[in-house]
Amino acid sequence: MKEMVVGSEVGRRGTPSPSPPPPPPQALLERLKDYGQEDAFALWDELSPEERDLLVKDIESLDLPRVDRIIRCSLGSQGAYLPAVEPVPESSVSTVEVRTLEDRERWWKRGLKAISEGKLAVVLLSGGQGTRLGSSDPKGCFNIGLPSGKSLFQIQAERIMRVQRLAAQSNDAGFVPPIPWYIMTSPFTDEATRRFFERHKNFGLEVDQVTFFQQGTLPCVSSDGRFIMETPYKVSKAPDGNGGLYSALKSSKLLEDMAMRGVRYVDCYGVDNALVRVADPTFLGYFIDKGVATAAKVVRKAYPQEKVGVFVQRGRGGPLTVVEYSEMDASMTTEINQSTGRLRYCWSNVCLHMFTLDFLNQVANGLEKDSIYHLAEKKIPSIHGYTMGLKLEQFVFDAFTYAPSMALFEVLREEEFAPVKNANGASYDTPDSARLMLLRLHSRWVVAAGGFLTHSVPLYLTGVEISPLCSYAGENLEGICRGRTFHAPCEITF
To answer: pTM of this prediction?
Structure first.
């Protein structure tokens, strides 16, 4: 009888040693090495087969040449010399005090005419979650505490419906094509936004009137440009900023969709403004009258240190653009224009813009070629817990430097700008502050229309809410309000 030798091949057959894991796909690994990102596969050997598949698919979903170009150009631009800036020329701004009643009526009628001809589309920037508001829902779902309980989405949808009715009343035919509403979400808000609209039946808008599309994402990177891994099999990513609008419109073929609908002008705004005048006929009429490629609504800075971006001119005779407050030195924020008595740099950017469709098509190609993104240092989720890293973002206003012509249109903060950014208890831009601004504005409309208010709490703490379906900007209220008394807080409907 043969003796079994311990460690012999025969003895090992019952307990075979585990086979080594397969190596990463060679071609993909070589591509990562070309861009200095091979560390994405650093934990490959520790992954399960399913996790390896997820990692490969995640890397393959990245446009590596584009991502590498963006990272290199953006990191390389850090600390670069900024061109000298000048205050915006007075001739580029339509200020409230210089407008005549005739101007406003002409612009209103001209805007309604363009809307009645189907020439306006609206784009909503809605990629953000309400994290700072204490909510994981999309910001547009937020209820700021109005008597009606309406969300920001509903308020904006009803303002679109009201403008359509006003345009129909101004049109002899009595019918206007619905205003297309394009809503840009992010991977973090898309599904919840769609469900919210489905649940509320598009707030009365037609199904084919509302189109959702997603902005892109980009990898989060370390200070030396390497991918941060959220998990061993997933690159940490973040939305590419609201300036991702342009490439998203292009990749979704929505610019062609707009053209097919006969759109020539595009109104663009951010979701977190409770007083936004969506599809504003006056602004549209002014824009058409000026014949410029793009325009922006602005409000005057409330005080020199207010943390808002302001419009400037890049060099004498250069394009108008926005400088963030963090890029302004202390002397710039306090300089006074001796002839006007205003701050020299006083025109705040509030993300209320108008574009021609032709210009959007140009930007969709030009901005992507630029490849310089803003770098935001943030806490990034990673395999080591939250770590400091960089998010890469572009902003809507980055496109303004491409504009052959641009104009600014001043609006009053108390009428058109009530941002909802911080949770109640913060010192500014809260749901409470936005709600009070809206209630006070609508209270003024009621009094101007001949109505009266009673209240059991101080009036400065309350007011009335007028349904957007009744009035867009204070019009059409005499028949509803004259001689009537309303007890605040309440909602006024038909």
So the answer is: 0.91
